[in-house]
Amino acid sequence: MKAIIQRVTKASVTVGEDQVSAIGRGLCVLLGISVDDTQKDAEYLVRKLLNLRLFEDENGKMWSKSVMEKEYEVLCVSQFTLQCVLKGNKPDFHLAMPAELAQPFYGSILENMRSSYKPELIKDGQFGAKMQVHIQNDGPVTIELTSPSKPSDPKQLSKQEKQQQRKEKTRSKGPSESSREKGALRSRQDTNASSGAEGDVSSEREP
Known about the structure:
Blueprint: E1 2-15, E2 18-23, E3 26-32, H1 39-51, H2 67-70, E4 73-78, E5 85-87, E6 90-92, H3 99-116, E7 122-124, E8 132-146, H4 154-205
Parallel strand pairs: 3-4, 4-7
Antiparallel strand pairs: 1-2, 1-3, 1-8, 5-6
Helix pairs in contact: 1-3
């Protein structure tokens, strides 16, 4: 999941001639959902964007307060084009979640934001519509946020699994091998010491 988070003095969404929503100072979030995204990705993104310290405190110190601490508004806009890959010069969007799946998923993200914050301060565009997004960026401040990646290539997955198995095997063998080596070393030292002591004793007994 990808998000472009912009600190704004105001932002709004219109569809045709109608204004769908508008906010004052706060964050405008362009959100792109991929085919691989899960609720864990959504929870990560909601938690991070609501807690990003993009605003100044009461003394004017920058990067000190989050949108929740300032009680500012958030405008979310679904933006599948963030999942674009280029084939030559042509954009391809096969990594974006299909609209019939993305719409309820996007709705669940909004509900998560509203339950985590003040619901009246979370605004939305119009899913699937051709929107005009008017953003007055403050700063300008623009943050790109991506949920933790998961390799989709089976070869890469297999490689990571093998690496993990080797690490686990090393951790499990390490202490036991080390203990055996130490034990063997102590045994050799004891044997040598014993041999030396016996030799000394027998030599003393000889005339």
